[in-house]
Amino acid sequence: MHFSDLLAQQRHYFKAQHTKTLAARKSALQRFKQMLLANEAQLYAAVHADFQKSEHEAFLTEWAILIKDIDEALGALPKWMKAQKVSTNLVNLPGKSYVVPEPLGVCLVIGAWNYPVQLSFAPVIAALAAGNTVILKPSELAANSAQCMADIVANYFDPQLFTVVLGGVAETTALLEQRFDKIFFTGSPAVGRIVYQAAAKHLTPVTLELGGKSPAILTPSADLPTAIKRLVWAKFLNAGQTCIAPDYVFVHESIYRECLNLFQQEIEKNQYALANKNYVQIINERNLARLENLLDKDKIAYGGAINHADRTISPTLLKDVGFDDAIMQEEIFGPILPLLPYTDFQEALAYIQDHEKPLSAYLFCNNKTEQAAWLSHLSFGGGCINDAIMHITNPNLPFGGVGQSGTGSYHGKSGFDTFSHRKSVFEKPRLFEVPLKYPPYTASKMNWIKRLLKFS
Predict the structure, then answer these.
(1) Is the pLDDT of residue 92 over 90?
(2) φ, ψ of residue 211 in degrees (nearest 5)
(3) What residue ranges define each of the domains in the chain, with the CATH number in brackets?
């Protein structure tokens, strides 16, 4: 089937009002949940085939998040869908005003490879909750996960409502030539620009979930053992292949040596390894080679072992890193963590300010003045004080980037809003009319209008 035919079918299905009612949306979400429950083991097996990821991590980072998303949407949909009353100004009285959330229509979701199930299915759940039809294009890099998603979706959904398209760059390019009502993309800034340019030809609204170099700052006032435990977990989860992983850490010079030792001790305590089921592979040889090229062996403080047969890099700490080093020129997206000493808190903030706005930022600090300065000076998509990554687990916090790290947000109500249009409506009683706006235009009418508008 040509993509234009598929879009035509979904558009016809949408225009026939099959997706818009509360009952239809709940039915789609319940079917989605049934699909996830019935195919849990298959999804774990597919993710394991792509990354050697353990069932424990797949449950936490891929599957459970989706179940919680569905349950929240099922419970909140009546409230989310309800028309919102707003006040009516004096000029329009008597009358009433309200905002109605309506679905956008036919949506394209382009998923990412690093959390292939979660980052593909989570936007789809939001789109279905908002009453849309969806075409999902998962990343071809996580091929086993993509095939599994395509297979199970085909068994549970009418393709007029929701379907999965497999393929690579050619298929994605062909899809982007079509006119969608919404495009949702998760991936790199470079590909995000391509998606944005393609969408602009049709003036299609776009949500871009991108990335960048998410900074962390570790200050002397932090509880160092706890801070480093959280940073190590956040960085080496999924072998660093996480868009909101801390990319580098500014460490105050007075605690630098101590922190370097604590980082090493925490990594050793965790015993990261595929055999221990707490570590994963780099997605492919190409990305492994990219990371190897970024790694300056003279600056390795700990780790740095590369195993091409297993497609792994051991958790690695870098010291004496300069701002001009290759590792600081692009998002690392792997298990390599540069530790940069700083002397002045404002200088650390200034460095972050002088670069592209990151998707996430993290501050480990118990000094309220520094916390306030961090919040005031830095622009970022989302972040944490005294933790890392965990902001993504709260559905009440919109998740998204700013500037080069993305545009738009989702999760919880924000996801529903992302795939909805807020339609403004003013409703006037049939019989009552104040004739001031109609000809003839007289001085008396003008005086009354000025009084009503409070012009004096």
Answers:
(1) no
(2) -170, -135
(3) 3-210+406-422 (3.40.605.10), 215-398 (3.40.309.10)
| Alpha carbon distances (Å) from 455 to 216, 334, 414, 452 | 53, 62, 39, 8
For the chain, helix, strand, coil in percent to 5 are 50, 20, 35
Q: How many CB atoms lie within 10 A of CB 169?
A: 10
Q: Give the residues across from 421 on adjacent strands.
A: 102
8 Å CB contact between 189 and 404? yes
Q: Cα(240)–Cα(233) distance, rounded to whole angstroms?
A: 10
List the catalytic residue out of 72, 209, 266, 331. Answer: 209
The three-class DSSP label of residue 42 is helix
Dist. CA 253–CA 48, nearest whole Å? 41
Which position among 107, 148, 243, 259 bears the catalytic label? 243
pLDDT digits (tens, 9 = 90+) for 182-232: 999 999 999 999 999 999 999 999 999 999 999 999 999 999 999 999 999
| Model pLDDT for residues 222-232, shown as the tens digit of each residue | 999 999 999 99
Compute the radius of gyration of the chain from its Cα atoms. Answer: 25
**From the CB of residue 93, how many other CB atoms can be counted at a distance below 10 Å?**
13
- Those residues with Cβ within 8 angstroms of residue 394's Cβ, 6 or more apart along the chain or in another chain: none
Six-digit token string for 29: 């979400």
Pick the closest to residue 1 from 159, 127, 180 (CA basis).
Answer: 159
Give the H/E segment covering residue 96.
Answer: strand 96-103
Residue with tokens 């830095």, as numbered in its chain: 378
Ranges 90-99, 170-179, 288-297, 310-319: which has the least confidence:
90-99
Is 148 labeled as catalytic in the residue annotation? no
